[in-house]
Amino acid sequence: MAEPLPFMTITALSKAIASKALSPVELTQTLLDRVDQYDGVTNAFIEVTAELALKAARKAESEVMNGLSRGPLHGIPVGLKDIIDLAGYRTTAHSHQLIDNWVKEDAVVTAKLKEAGAIILGKLSTHEFAMGGPSFDLPFPPARNPWNREHFSGGSSSGSGAAVAAGFMPAALGTDTGGSIRLPAAFCGIVGLKPTYGLVSRRGVLPLSQSLDHIGPMTWTVEDNALLLDVLAGHDPLDPASADRPYVSASAGIHGGVKGLRVAYLPSLGAEAGASDEVMKGVAHVAETLKSLGAIVEEVTLPPLMDFASCGNMILSSEAFAIHEPNIRQRPEKYGEILRDRLFLAGFVHASDYVHAMKMRGELVATVAKVMRTYDVIICASAATPAPKIKEMPKFGLYTKPPLTFPFNVTGMPSLSMCCGYSASGLPLAVQIAGHAFEEATVYRVAQAYEATTTWRSRRPDLDAGLKALAA
Amino acid sequence: MSEAISKEAFQALIDRAGLTLTPPQFDELRIAYGYLQAMRERVRKPRGYDAEPAHIFKPAER
Q1: How many separate domains does chain A show?
Q2: pLDDT value for A305
Q3: pLDDT exceeds cutoff 90 at B23
Q4: Each residue of A87-120: pLDDT tens digit?
Q5: SS3 B40
Q6: Does the annotation mark A23 as catalytic?
Q7: With an 8 Å Cβ cutoff, are A348 and B42 in contact?
Q8: What is the C-alpha separation between A99 and A122, in angstroms, rounded?
């Protein structure tokens, strides 16, 4: 084991555990110690579930020693964004509203992780109800970026992004309604996948906007991400949006390369959002790399980002307001300022706006499908800039600076964000790779081929520097 | 951005939504309403009678 335990991939940890060279108990304890030492830098955790984790680790150790294998996640610590239910613990949504929301049942994704032998290490910071943040007036502080704690870790799966980059855990689950997996992945320099709508069950996860919500994996490497998706995916007859279709393994063909694959390159999305030169060059370099590996890369355009953002925002606002309507009317003081004011604004969307947005959604899906007819994937920037400063985030940014991730929530296509370099200031840059619905395997193939050509995975945040900054 | 909504019209929207805003919230949200209005205008295009919303609904079968 050449790498220290907190920096090993799931692929490597899994081999070490299966060969009995590494005990899940030793791994779990090492990570718990690291969280104890460094989480003041990132505020990634809302609750560390140490007792539960060590119990599960001892069980996994016993099973491995007795020759039972539950697959590649057996004995692997994982974190949950705190809108995902874990039986016996609170799901707070990072909010005073749900500060005593103890739950009795696991979310479907939590149950799947446990069945696969994964160890739940804790509940992780989020924007309030996955919509309001970063906020400083909530019961828990907002997550900070481990690369520089003065910067935003992205949202709303803020703790999940920070925790994986910090080496607190090799994987975490996030949710994504407008970019909430891919933005923290981009700002924290990790891999995050928003799967196809309907591929992963939403049951047991607090909703933000039911027709745009997705649950997905966040990891340090592409291959680890695919291993998680293989566990999470599958039909859930009790989730009305769940797709009833056979699942094709995302990890099986991941090393297949990109020779002959057709890649649509979309620089206009970043340009439209005023992306920085570093971002534009980073994404252009990905396009060139894929071309050098044998892919056919051609430039394309899509409808304006503002079309996707307007459509998505009208839907998100309407559905979120319907969920929060009683509380925002009767006890708005229980929300943090940012979510409260965003919900107030959402309350002004009319029913006919929502229906128009739903009609527009169908039109956008058809337009993108037409462009994608002759391509396997599309690549573009994940975010216009590296992580901004945490105290400079605009309250109504979804309207004024819409995320570059939103188009693929509207279309429901799978979309992955991964590191494509670092800025001069040492913050990660990121590229987005989206594919056809239910073709996550192709997205991963392209991402894996690119990742294998880079050295980006050899760099980690300096948490000791973060501790010094915290003490200063 | 669209022209700012009048205070009276904005108060009517607040009442319709059943919300209670403080004066500073009223002022801030009235400005922010312009962002929402701009998005609304993008979404509201002339469409034919046959334009379907992207909802999914399956009747329950026996």
Answers
A1: 1
A2: 98
A3: yes
A4: 999 999 999 999 999 999 999 999 999 999 999 9
A5: helix
A6: no
A7: no
A8: 16
